Every structure is written in structure tokens, then in C-alpha cells.
Amino acid sequence: MNPPERHDPAAPGQSIERPCPGLLSIVIPCYNEEAVIEETHARISRIAPRLGMELEVLYVDDGSQDSTLKKLKQLAVEDSRIVVIEFSRNFGQQAAMSAGLEMAQGDAVVLIDADLQDPPEVIIEMIAKWRAGVDVAYGRRKSRDGESTFKLVTASLFYRFFAMLMPYPVPVDTGDFKLCDRVVVDTVCALPEKRRYLRSLVPWAGFHHAPVDYDREARTAGETKYSAFRLLSLAADAVLLSSDKPVRIIWFLAALFAFVGTSGLLAGLISPAKETVSLPTILALL
Fold first, then answer.
1. Cα–Cα 20 to 30 A to 217, which of 117, 192, 210, 281?
2. What is the pLDDT of residues 170-223, one digit of tens each?
3. Cα distance between residue 286 and residue 282, in whole Å
4. How far apart are CA 230 and CA 286, in angstroms?
5. How far is residue 13's CA from residue 100's CA, in Å, rounded to a whole number?
6. 266: pLDDT confidence band, cut at 50, 70 and 90?
7. Residue 115 phi/psi, 5° resolution?
8. pLDDT tens profile 39-58
9. DSSP state letters, the chain
């Protein structure tokens, strides 16, 4: 990647000019969320008058197998602020969020899951940070209700391991819940990556980031879409798509094994004739 152009953030406490009222886009990826999607939109509708911005809500149906898409289309009939994006199959959450970012028209864009574990009411505080000069107001979890100790510990360890691999600052204890200024969205959308991991691409873009602390709630309905295998797959994608350090380590180990093997083979070839070096020995050295 080429280094992005930097944006001069406002000094702490210094406001910069933002569009007033401006348009807020909320991007919500959905996969089999029939049990909660109507309540999700109801919660967003209730906070809409307090946002101080015009609103569009982009629901990205990621190939749902239940009635999620049907309910979204009905909601769109009832509410002209809704845009429904329909995928032909399940491409994954990162692809769904990326599609939403591409379609969003807002001066600021919020990414939030459909399951209501990230409270929509926090968006109001994110907008306040944005109006004060912050380009990325990201949700930072103070607590995570309804999750096992094992998942809490492993998630915390992964966040810190992942941040350690990155050559630029990446916040820990965060997910995809965030508000991004238009210039951040345009920068991320202009990147050539076909497979994106937004938790690393947004920090990579630079700009002025600030946390908004909140308590993550337990799921009120429906089931998590992330099995242990899918979580491991996501973690592997996150590391491989975001850092070249794993590849460097693999190349280093390959070079090391090649050196050791070649050295062993040469040692066997130049040893005294009376010392017979068998093929299994050479293969073992390799």
C-alpha cells in the first residue's frame, strides 16, 4: 500500500466545520436476523430525532436464508430512509460492510451490527465527537454482557496480539462499531483490496481517531452467526490480510530449513569415504 494522504485533525477541544445538519448513513450488515431486524430499525427510528442530522439506513442482506430480506423490503416500503442491498449469496460480514460503505451517501457513516449488542443510542455520542473534529469515533467496549469467560479472555488476547503485528496504531477491545467521516470512507473505498478487513484498513488510513466507551449488551434475540471455526477463520483472515509479518516468518523458516538441509547434505557428501551416508540419513537432514 502507498501511504495515505494525512488529514490535519482539530486540536483537542477545537471544533471544525461539519455539514449542518448533514446526512448520516448507517450501514447494517444482516445475515439471518429475522428475529431482531424489526426491533433494530425501531431502535434506530427512536433515536433519529436526536441525531441532529438527516438519515439514511442501508441494510445489506448477506444472503440470508430466513425471512430477513422479506422484512427489510417491507420496512423499506414503510420508511423512505431505508436502502436495501441484496447479495446473491453469503459473502461474509466484511464484504457486506464494504458494499454498504460504497453505497453510502452520508457526510458521516456509521457501521453497526443488526443484533443490537452495540446500542444504537451510542451513535449520538459518536456524532458529538465527529462534530468536535474527530474523523473516526470508534466504539470501545467497557464490558461484554452475555459472553463466556473463555471468549472474553481469548478475544482480549487476540486483539492485543493483532495490534502488536500492525506497524501502525490499532485500537484494542473494539469491533466494527464506529462512525467515519466522509473523507475516511472515500479513502478506504479507494483502496484496491478485494478482500477487506475494515478493523485494520480504517486505522491504516490515518486521520483523527477517538474512542467512545460503552457497555456491550447481550443478544436479545436470534443466534450468533460465528461458530468457533468461523471465529478462527476470521482471526486468520484478519492477520493474513492485514500484516506481512506472518509471510516474513514463513519465508524466514523456509530459508532456515533450506540452509540446514543443504548444510547437512554437503557435510554428508564431503565426509570420509569410509563413513557411508545413507539416503534416509540425507532425507532426515533435509
1. 210
2. 777 778 899 999 999 999 998 887 777 787 788 888 889 999 999 888 767 656
3. 6
4. 36
5. 31
6. confident
7. -85, 0
8. 999 999 999 999 999 999 99
9. -PPPPP--PPPTT------SS-EEEEEEEESS-TTTHHHHHHHHHHHGGGS-SEEEEEEEE-S-SSSHHHHHHHHHHH-TTEEEEE-SS---HHHHHHHHHHH---SEEEE--TTSSS-TTHHHHHHHHHHTT-SEEEEEEEEETT--HHHHHHHHHHHHHHHHH-SS---SSEEEEEEEEHHHHHHHHTS--SS--HHHHHHHT-S-EEEEEEEEPPPSSS--S--HHHHHHHHHHHHHHH-SHHHHHHHHHHHHHHHHHHHHHHHHHTS-TTS---HHHHHHH-
Strand boundaries in the chain, DSSP class E: 23-30, 54-61, 82-86, 108-111, 136-144, 174-181, 209-216
Cell digits for 4? 495515505
What number does CATH give the domain 23-242? 3.90.550.10
Reported residue count of the chain is 286
CB 84 within 8 A of CB 187: no
Whether residue 141 contacts residue 215, with contact meaning beta carbons closer than 8 Å, is answered with yes
Q: Is the peptide bond before 21 cis (omega within 30 degrees of 0)?
A: yes
pLDDT exceeds cutoff 80 at 284: no
Task: Show the cell assigned to 203.
Answer: 486505522
Residue 11 scores a pLDDT above 60: no
**Number of Cα atoms under 13 Å in the Cβ half of residue 265:** 9
